[in-house]
What does this fold into?
Amino acid sequence: MTLRQLEYIVKIVECGSITEAAKKLFIAQPSLSAAVKELEDEFGIEIFNRTSKGISLTVDGTEFLSYARQIIEQTELMQQRYTGKKPSKQLCSISTQHYAFAVNAFVELLSGLDADEYEFTLRETRTHEIIEDVKNLRSEIGIIYLSDFNEKVLNKLLKENHLVFNPLFEADPHVFVSSKHPLAKNASVTLEDLENFPFLAFEQGEHNSFYFSEEILSTVPRKKTIHVSDRATLFNLLIGLNGYTICSGVLSSDLNGDNIISVPLVTHERMRVGWIASEKSHLSLMALDYISKLKKFILEYGYKTK
It folds into this structure.
């Protein structure tokens, strides 16, 4: 085993393919494949699943990657200490459902970062893609919610992919509406109150199952439904069409202005929001710092963190 071989594994995971990693590393693809095979033979494990659709980490590969990253990080710290070598570019990738608090924590993470170079990724994306991102370690952590309705299905999927759900907080569902919405000044609203207004939901692509919906109470029949793919569009439609969406209620005026407000929804349902990660991965210091900032922001809003 060499340090270079460990760097190869990390780069392959970052790129998502051996071919693309070989280009970034300026080496021949057969040479890179041979280096991976040597590592697998040396340790008696398979690091990658290889299929016609590409590669993905095996369970052993996920654990191996965690150790590889730790060794590389420790080597870089030693080089900085004794040779004055410039720190490498800091990397961090997060996948999340469309939550303002996830963006707030990301902003705070970067604002407090003392680094000349970094390359971070924040993906607000579909539920199934979040699970795939974390499964294949394209993202260190993912942020999703569980409810009585979707918990059994999602927990089964997480278990099959060797992922663990870590609770952050439990939320009473709210609706987001325009500050000029006819119901905006209500102390709370019911589904009956909202019946004639357009319901806005994030589309889930080919995995458009009720279990993957970002909005709780997804199976309730509605007269008017609009599916969108991003938060900015959703907020514009909330304002322009007097629409509504169902959410955790955590809203940031710093990021979203004062045109959108949160109103409690009368329901017995609860949202259990948390972060997922591979059961065998060791989170980087950057990912741990991000989780800490998530909890800080949630506490500021008034929710108790887990």
Observations:
- The CA atoms of residues 150 and 211 lie 5 Å apart.
